[in-house]
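W.,

You were right to be curious about this one. When I first looked at the sequence I had no strong expectations either way, so I just let the prediction run and decided to look at it fresh. Below is the sequence, 179 residues in total, followed by the output.
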Amino acid sequence: MYAIVEIAGQQFKVAKDQKVFVHRLATEEGKKVAFDNVLLIGDGDKVTVGAPVIEGAQVGAKVLKHLKGDKVIVFKKKRRKGYKVKNGHRQHLSEIVIESIVASGAKKAAPKAEKVAPKAEKSAPKKETKAAAPKAEATPATDDLSKKTVAELKEMAKAAGITGISSMKKADLIAALSK
């Protein structure tokens, strides 16, 4: 039995008890990991192809060790210009061993859901603060605002309690103040 699975942005053809070098995983050595992005499973003559992934399929693995790959030399030169740059790079890798390939009935990995939830919570309060910002008591006409300088508009926005004014352009400031 073999599977084609996406691990850390790359696709690998894996089988049980196979050792694979993948991009560095954020898991400690000796811990088990599960990969849900199973694209294909082959079992003898029977081949199951996902669209794009197979629901309920999972590949279980154990992280053996973290290491660095071989050194790659990057040499740049422009002839007759006196330009030469030599750099080296060693990729951070994790060695894993595939322990199991489950075709169906596997549960989704929980750590991915936990990482997505805090990002959603962080972005939501920003929208609320902009919506809940107090408006100016007397909204001046937009003709008067277009005659003012950006510095004056920023001072008015600051007094009105509008946030994010440092990155706003003049048109954005006028739109924010006229609301």
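Here's what jumped out at me. Strands lie at 2-7, 10-15, 19-23, 32-35, 38-43, 46-49, 58-78, 83-102. And, maybe more interesting for your project: The radius of gyration is 28 Å.

Coffee later to discuss?

I.
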